[in-house]
Amino acid sequence: MSADPGTAHVVGAGLAGLAAAVELAAAGRRVRLYEAGRHAGGRCRSYLDAELGCRIDNGNHLLLAGNSAALRYLGRIGAIDTLYGPQEAVFPFVDLRTGERWTLRPNRGTLPWWILSARRRVPESRATDYLDALALRLANRSATVAEVLDQNRSLFRRLWEPVAVAALNTAVEGAAARLYWRILLETLGRGGAACRPLVPLEGLSETFVDPALAWLQAQGAEIRFGTLLRALKFGSDRVWGLVCDAGLIELGESDSLVLAVPAPVAARLVSTLVVPDVYSPIVNAHFRCSLPADAPLFVGVIGGAAEWVFRKREVLSVTVSAADRLVDRPTEELRELLWSDAATAFELPQKPVPQARIVKERRATFLASPEQLRKRPESQMRWKNFQLAGDYCDTGLPATIEGAIRSGFAAAREVLGRRHDTRPQRRQPGDSLPEFVPREELAKQRVLR
Hints:
Elements: E1 7-11, H1 15-26, E2 30-35, E3 46-49, E4 54-57, E5 63-64, H2 68-76, E6 83-84, E7 91-95, E8 101-104, H3 134-137, H4 145-148, H5 154-168, H6 177-186, H7 192-195, E9 197-200, H8 204-218, E10 222-225, E11 229-234, E12 239-244, E13 247-250, E14 256-259, H9 263-269, E15 279-288, E16 298-302, E17 308-311, E18 315-320, H10 331-345, E19 356-366, H11 370-373, E20 386-388, H12 401-415, H13 439-448
Parallel strand pairs: 1-2, 1-14, 2-10, 7-16, 14-20
Antiparallel strand pairs: 3-4, 5-9, 6-9, 7-8, 11-12, 12-13, 15-18, 15-19, 16-17, 17-18
């Protein structure tokens, strides 16, 4: 008889914890998932806003076709078809200072011939300007984006800066140049096929959370909401207990633990753990309004208070990353300010300002500065049955959906003993990327469901 592989205890049902639990359950492990709150998803979920009278996402997250871990996760839980997007990589922008509009259109292949076409690249930029990004690769580990790239170029203001702020949630004056290079390498560096934008058909929960919970339950996983972890019981080489509000949960000899809680909580539970401890805020504004089906999925805003404006089913959502300059402003002031930019981006009337929900996340992500990156821990802890997961772990990516899911996968691989297995993962059912479906057809499919 084969030895009992034990139970994998996963604490935290954000995306990192869900990814770890899914990977472990798929490998045949018994999984018990704990969540202190009453809902899963962490910073990536949807909820009914009573004031607006509709469901909204608690933040705006743009997935790209090259986010391999995220798409593998969605393929595993059968949620690939909850995403949709254009067939090509298209990124519309508007410059509020000049009124100029353009669409960035990288070609599908890895050879970036698109920079030779004035119709595809950023206005007022030359093909040779894009070579400046190569300096990020050779940058010192303590260098920032602003120190490496030429801030006087139009391309910096119209592309490098807004992309860096959105990806790293850190102002370019403090953002790590080497981490930004990794982002560009995995997106534009892989060609337009990897940059194709994908968004949830309904909401974040309907794509990333609800299908995962249903899939885990179908695999026999036990999910415990409202279970707050107070402390861990450590032995010399393993964790042997979880102290929760309801009492002590003992871990058997073959059991394992994946701790997928926010960085401050992890540091409280493990006194020797060093984690990033400086954070950057995000401000989101959700305006109740409907737009025509042929409106763009999103628009990048240059020179305004808003940065990205997303069209969703019942709302127009604005995201401001690295929002230190806005997070302390009054809600009504932000409502007026951000609607002005959103209305301009989507060519809507400035008045009246629609009903809105302003969401401020003061500790949205860790600050992606060179100093903070050095504090990111690895997944493997010194206790043999204990792994970390979370977007603050050293994934090589900033605090994004892709980074969180990769961290969950890494922790699961440690548990499963595949730490040094570099063989390519087998393709999972549903891993193929979703093709573009006209919104009218998607609406019909929703009715048929």
